[in-house]
Structures are given as structure tokens and as C-alpha cells.
Design a protein that fits this description.
This protein has 10 helices and 15 strands. The protein is globular, with a radius of gyration of 19 Å. α2 packs across α3 and α8 runs parallel beside α9. 36% of the residues lie in helices and 24% in strands. The protein folds into 2 domains: 57 residues, Winged helix-like DNA-binding domain superfamily/Winged helix DNA-binding domain (Arc Repressor Mutant, subunit A, Orthogonal Bundle), CATH 1.10.10; 177 residues, Rossmann fold (3-Layer(aba) Sandwich). β2 and β3 form a beta hairpin. The chain is α/β, with parallel strands linked by helices. Strands 6-5-4-9-12-14-15 form a 7-stranded parallel β-sheet, sandwiched between helices.
Length: 256
Amino acid sequence: MKSDGRRQGIMDFLMDAGTASVDDLASRFGVSKMTVHRDLDELEESGFLRKVRGGASIQPSGLFESDFRYRQKQAAEEKQRLAAAAVAMIEPGQTVIIDDGSTAGGIAGRLADLRPLTVISNNLAVIQELAGVGGITLIALGGQYSKKFHGFFGLLTEDMLKSLRADVAFLSSSAIHGASAFHQDQEVVQTKRTMMAVAARKYLLVDHGKFGRTALHFLTDLRAFDTVFTGRELEPQVREALDGAGVSLTVVGNKD
């Protein structure tokens, strides 16, 4: 197997497993451990994984945000409940921003009953899902494409956003610590902040596993959102801290 195919194979395996040891990867792909180390170095440099002692991981950390495809698989049922609750905040005829996050991105497939709508997004999955859909005016934000985040970022993205206005914006975040949202990537942070600045109402959608975590870059105080949606009751001390800070939190429970 050539190096490009093997590295893609490593990523495909990590999408399912989350972590893998060098020994396991060497055995799986029939190469030396030194070759695996070189592959992991290349993938880490490109931002697709992080090397850990004895192997590699695609799971997020304070400095690393996992690949979009991996994030799509995490807490999938909870994210669908959050998306269903979020669309109740939209009225036909409005202009809606959807960010790059896998949680906010789940809204796209639920917009048909609310047409006509204008949708602004830098999320390639959202753009592909809504392209050509009747009753949806789609504004696809350009910029530099990130394979890792499956979206567009940078100065072009931000300049385009600054020329627009929206009724409502739906955002996701990789970590919630205290009453603040954080993210590992500074370009992603800047794009999200610009989305918030051009929207009249702002909602954050985060699965319950994001609470109690932190990441490198401060995104915003949670009070900047009209409501923070999550899919499961939080630990009492976490909920008390949010309530004490004046954060509006909506828990979208499982009806079963």
C-alpha cells in the first residue's frame, strides 16, 4: 500500500476506534513501526490527529479538535434532539446562519417545513445538503477550505460575513468551561465571533459532554447567547454555576 492510501487507512481506522497503538497499526497495515511513526508525524503535522504515548488519537483535547467526520459520530442521537429544538427558533422568511460545527450542522436537514428561508453557512456539509433545494436561498461563504473542519475560514469568509445580516445564528463549540465557550482553533473562533456579530439572535448547541472541558482559545461568554441548548441534565454544581452567571440554558431531554 502506498503512503497516501495507508495514511487514509489509518484515519479511517481512527474514525471508528478513536485511538490506536503503533504496534496495532504496524500489524494492521503490514509495515514497520518506524513507517507508522512517519505516517503519524505527517498526519499530526497536517492537523488530523495527535500522537500520544505509544500511538495516536483522534479524540479531542484542550489543544486539538477532532476531525469533522469523527465529531459527526459522537452523541449523534443527542445532536438530533438539539437540532429539532433549534428549528423551533426559526420562522419562515428569516435569514439563518449555520456554523461549521457538526451539532449546528444537523439543523440543515430540518429546514424544509420552514421555507422560504435564506441560509448562510461556511459548513460544506450544510452547503451540499441545501444546494438546489427549492425555497432555500443559499449563501455559501467562501474562503480557505479546511478538510479537518469541513468548512471555509479566513479573511475572505469574515469579509463576506461582515457584508451580511441575519435574524438568527446557530453555533457549536468544542468546550464549555465555567460560563464560557472555548475552541482549539483561532481561525474557527474568529469566524464564529463574526457570525455572532451579524446576527440579531444567537443560539449555542452543545452536547452535554462538552461541559467541564476547556480548549486553547476563548470564544465568548455564554451570556452572549439568547439560549444555550444541551441534551442532558448537567451536574448540579455545573448547572448552579451557569444559573448564577445568568446563562440561559435549555435542556432538551429524551422523550422516551
